[in-house]
User: Fold this.
Amino acid sequence: MSFEFILRIIGMIVLAVTGGYLGFDLSRFSPSDAIRTTLVFALVGALTGLILTPYFTTRPARALRSLLGRLAAESLFAGLTGLIAGLLIAALLAFPLSLLPKPLGEILPFVGVLIFSYFGVSLFVTRQGDIMGLLSALSGRGEGGGSSSWSNLNRNILLDTSVIIDGRVSDIARTGFLPGTLLIPRFVLNELQNIADSSDGMRRQRGRRGMEVLAELQKLPNVLVRISDINVDGVREVDDKLVVLGKQLKCPVLTNDYNLNRIAELQGVTVLNINELANAIKSVVLPGEALRINIMQEGKDHSQGVGYMEDGTMVVVENGKEYIGEYMDVNITKVLQTAAGRMIFGRVDEEALAKRKK
Assistant:
């Protein structure tokens, strides 16, 4: 038996009794129909209570809980602090305002509570970043200049399913380049579980790998991982929910999904893309420089060989086919940046090869 059903029964009984009393009072205008009037009002009250009770009890409470669940911890803290400050100011002004002549002395204290509470909440929520920064500075000073801060601890980063499956997020988090709380909504966890339970062996393996990555993240001592029941009503797709949550919580979305990246950027949501990070930290080489690489396989065109740098960047060697399996000195001739990453073209250094043969 659900709690909402119990409330319906209670509301039905209360309004039935209330309607019966009201019908009995009205029956004095027509004493001959007293019983019928009482029963009609009681039945109307019972039906009204049965239908309308949830709209005054559980559903407003559920909507309020959903609203509070979408708010960031910083906003909640700032709003509560502003409310307390506004109530304190209103309490200080209540006594002098009550000394004013009637009806001002009776109305203005209540109006002051409403006005100062509203302005307190609005002011503190608007300046929440400055307030958290001040608290961070004070806490760091009190602890001898520690590196942890309120703003870092309360900076949420939403994780996408693709970035959890990818696995590199645990290595990045271990280095400390992701300050704040890694927030994983329940719907992302549910999607990951569906992938892990898939009948497709490859998808199932990827899903289980994502579960292992989450377990690794939770064990890291310098990383805060929080699984939240926060949700977005009226939106079905996981990517769309992440974008809406990013806008509501004012936090970035960590992903390596190209489509989610583009959609989030179009809607003004900050995106942290692991693929872009990987491309950004790759070794930078320029035409004219020399590399020593192992030519591992044939290229697409005739006489081409292919090797790889330590960071995985592919190097196409124009005259490298005959040197497959050997470490060769290669002169870089061209560097191309594509959507898939960086491609480097070069030629085997004939002069260095000739000197080595001598």
About this structure: Residues 141-151 have pLDDT under 50 and may be disordered. The CA atoms of residues 70 and 289 lie 53 Å apart. The chain has 15 helices and ten strands.
